[in-house]
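Hey Z.,

So I finally got round to the zinc ion thing we talked about over coffee. Here's the setup:
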Amino acid sequence: MTYCGRCKEERMHQVVALHSDGRAERVTCKYCQSTHLYRDPEAKAARARKTNGANAGSRSAEVKTRAVASNRPARAYSPQETYATGDQITHPKFGEGNVVEARAGKIDVRFGRELRTLLHAG
Ligand SMILES: [Zn+2]
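And the result:
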């Protein structure tokens, strides 16, 4: 049974064209005789899962960055840059951090539960 767009109902359909991989491409509704693209519910679900999976990684990282106190985007840590309290940084070794204190030449950065003192140009 496949959903027929014309009948607006689940109807028996006859496959009239196949994809190269053997999946139904076009079907004819046995009730109203209209021919339309076959909407494969499994293929659609698989595609949705795949898309979600691909996006989930980048999106959750983005959300995580944004969710922390500041709205400023995380900057890649470099000792040549100047940082201020509240800045989000990404460190090549420690990952994402939050500047909790900025002093002359040094910043205290919280990486998860660890607090580290890093150099900066400020
Ligand atoms: Zn129909």
